[in-house]
Amino acid sequence: MKTRRNLSASIPNETRKAVYARDGYRCALCDDTHGLQIHHIVHRSCGGNDTPCNLITLCWRCHAEAHGTWVAERHAVRPPHTAEERYAAYRMLQDEYEQLCVEYVSDYYAERGEEWWPYK
User: Fold this and answer.
1) What ranges in the chain are assigned the alpha helix state H?
2) Cα torsion at 14, 18, 21, 23 (round to 10°)?
């Protein structure tokens, strides 16, 4: 029997549901319950996989910012004007969200006495 997959990220639906349930059907970072998406902590292009320990539930805003997209409604200032400044700002967003995602998932597994290892 084939496993049904969601076309957006090829994550099996059973895994997707398990991650949503683990994270309480809300964004793991801001607690929003609308526009939920699954984010790979270690990107697949960098060797990350589709196991729950490498996945986190994010709202569309946190997910966009985790990928370096400036969500204007979250910031009091506009993105920088020069390409270099924009790149630095977007990279800072990505780094910040990566750290937040790693802390959330590693803390979740640490509370259960397990070591977080996204490359399983």
Assistant:
1) 13-22, 60-66, 83-111
2) -140
User: Distances in Å between the alpha carbon of 60 and those of 29, 71, 109, 112?
Assistant: 11, 10, 24, 28
pTM: predicted TM-score of the whole model, two decimal places? 0.83
55-83 burial, b at 16+ Cβ within 10 Å, e below that, comes to bbbbbebbbbbbebebeeeeeeeeeeeee
* CATH placement of domain 13-111: 1.10.30
What stretch of H or E contains 39? strand 36-40
Residue 13: predicted pLDDT: 94
How far is C-alpha 2 from the geometric centre of its chain's CA atoms? 26
